[in-house]
Fold each of these.
Amino acid sequence: MSNNINVPKDKLSNMDGASPTKQRARLVVILFVILLFSYVDRINISILLADNAFLTDLGIKGDPVAMGMLMTAFMIAYAASNILFSPMSDYFGPRKALLIAFPIWAVSMSIGGLATGLSMMLMARVLLGVGEGMHYPVQMKYVKNWFPPIERGKANSVWQFGLFIGPALAMPILTWLIGSFGWRGSFFVLAALTVIPFMLVWRYAADTPRDSRYVNAGELEHIEAGLRVEREREMALEKASFAESLKFFIYNYRYWIMVFCFMFNAASMFGIYTWLPSYLKAARGFSWAAMGALSSLPYVAGAVGLIICGYLGDKTGKRAVFCVIGNATMALGIYMAAMVENNMASAFCLALAIFGAGLTLPSIWSISQNIVPTKALGAGVGLMNGIGSIGGALSPVIVGYIIKTSGSYVGGLMCLVACAAMASVLALGLVKEKF
């Protein structure tokens, strides 16, 4: 064992002859579950935009701008929460921040189930955005605290599975649930299910490996040995104030390339999330049942992209290349989906687009974890996710406006193509910097 690693006394008894534990693997599965539930909560609106009863009850049937506002309201609150509340994970630790966020999710979904009009539903979406805006920086803080740099690509790809598996499971399940019990029932079920991630974090998710009773000395040594070089690089921050630590990334132009790359990526991705079910049903003429199944297909493809990027990103170290390729693939897939005449081919092109999104995400967050120092990671990732979410906030309502004024989905999809292409161009700057 290295002399530079001080193993806590309560872990020394596990040192001799004991195989290292794998608590960090359990933790990353918990992070996956959290993201899965969060994306199910946020994209249930996308499915409901194809439900006549929901649109009629809220008085927004035939109004694409109002429909887009339901996602935009969430994303604006989400962006603001990322910027304003994400430092909670730096001050109080990621575990406490999550345990505050989960009850807010549950309350927001309950209000959604009780909504009698657009204004009440918008209030529910804003509250959900505030609650969910806290959790993404927390996830990143956990990964940086628990995983050496050489393992972060795979770790980020595992927990971000929730981003794609959540919608993939939600589309058919919520389609069935809405068809069987009505749209209000979907909100109440999701509110009740929030207890699952809450209990997992309460029971198993310590802020750091040293705080966890499930980590033995062997695993602690492995983690801290991998983190040592990074920690030494950041030693200057230990005596710096929080405000001073912000300067280490705010004045780093590489950070801002990453931020705006993510902003255009999010604009394209959340545009697809919002309008995919409606596009398949209204523009391509698929049945309700077929729409539910085909809406899942792109997210399965996205999960495959995550696996590829997580593995090859760690193996090659060329994560920015995957940002370029992934965003370009997303732009190509959306363009082809709008242009091809065959409806089934269009659905498969959208799957190609989300596969491209899957190629980008582990790399985006692994690069940000390298750029932003640990002490300010919550604030740095929160600011990045908040600004990025502005793109995600604007695209649903902009696409809705284009659909309303043009009477066609094509123009809206071309807007998403342009955003993905811009993200790919920006990522070239990170390739030049050898990320």
Amino acid sequence: VAASKLGAEASYIGVLSDDSAGAFLKKDFEKYGVNADHCTVLNGYGSFLSFVVLSAESKSRTCLFHRGNLPGMVLTDAQKEIIKESDLLMVDGNDLEAAIAGAKLARENGVDVLYDAGGLYEGIEGLLPYANILIPSYEFATGFTKTDNAEDAAKKLYEAYHPELVVI
């Protein structure tokens, strides 16, 4: 949505349920000019949901997640073509196998991969080598690298995975 608001052509490739949350997300993508035509919509599942709690007092945010029960995504041929034709693929670690498959395909086809690293998921080190733009949360960066500050974490991530850019 942010990319679309800034004038970029943006698409969402993922799996949604036909429940009210999935319908809301698909409609919201369309509202903000994000193409969701190649999103897979499955019947009878609960969608992945996130709620963001903002604190004006501490100037912080807390993200709460409900993972739902959607099965893991398997990229379709049409979704693979969209990835190959893109300038940038943004992934997170929530559907790790699909994220790795998409990121690998992107890099093989000269497409930049931006990894928005927020959670310390098991197996996440399999995605990191494909990210040439790495934007981890402070918690991810320090937790993954076992450091206690952003500068040391950024250096370790850069030295281990060689992204072009690390922003914490």
Amino acid sequence: MKRVNIIIDNSKIIYYHIFPLLVNHKNFRDVEINIKYYRSLRKSIFDCDILILLSKPIFNLLNEKKYILEPAGPIIEFLSDANRKVPKIIWMDTADGTSTTHFELLPFVHKYLKKQIFKDRSLYKSQLYGGRIFTEFYHQHFSIDDTSVYPKIATLGDGEEKLGISWNIGLGDMMDAFGKNKKSVIYGRFFNLIIPKYNTIHYNHSKKNIDILLKTTTNLSRETVAFHREKLVKFLQLISQRNKLKSVIQGKRLSNKEFRSIMRHTKIFPSPFGWGEIGVRDYEAFIYGGVLLKPSVEHMETWPNVFINKKTYIPFKWDFSDIEEKINLILSDEKLFENVAEQGQEEYLKSISDTGMKDFTNRFIKQLED
């Protein structure tokens, strides 16, 4: 029996991340992999063959608040001690995007896995303004500056072979994202007693009478991050007014029931960048049978990759120069709308199907063994 210990916490985003592990609990037991979850740092966490550290929980447990992790700091001291007690350590970077890395940890771990990574690994060898590739873009092309300058982080040097992809948030239970109903709250508290299942409810692309839906937070603390959302909202409002579209953009807070009803009747789901490239809205588009309209994510790799250019989503340029053209194309070409909506939904449902879960299990086992 291979023993795998995982450090977690009670946050919803971490429950999101471990959701596919919980769903496949029996599959792992069948191949003699025993996974235990810990919310505190006890001696027994080292009683394993593989120790998996999710970055946000371990940062919180060790009260680490620095961007650059120092050799004498709590994280590296913990990893140095763990290396003497555990054969293999896997670091899972739970940051939202391709960037915001901690490559100073590479000498102390056997694998460094992220939800999504750059296709061009050389991007990790330079500093990005604002710590993200799209914040660098808005700084360079729109002269947006952050009030608080993002600190320089460790760039990628030796140990590049340790860098890999874990899995993205799409393997969480998207239908119950961030505790939208009681079921996900109960699962989050009692996950070790209740084996969760994916909610595979989905909606047809037909009978939709709302052109565009976007309700999002724009008051983010970094100007280079907030700029993208603020600009997108303004563009969508202008485009809707100019083309006399029926749109729900920002406005009053809706009940969960009202919001889901609107999603069922929406054609286009614009999904802006936030702290990272992928968000819950992406999967809401797939579930509710709409077309995902998203800034291009061709710069990144992720798994499962449900973001296929012009097949499962319609990309627009980061400078917004073609967004009106893309919206008009989707609304005027019924065949295109149907194809993208159907294929996006199919790819998503495939990722959480029995076949998708077998793929996940086999992939995770291979990552443990490599």
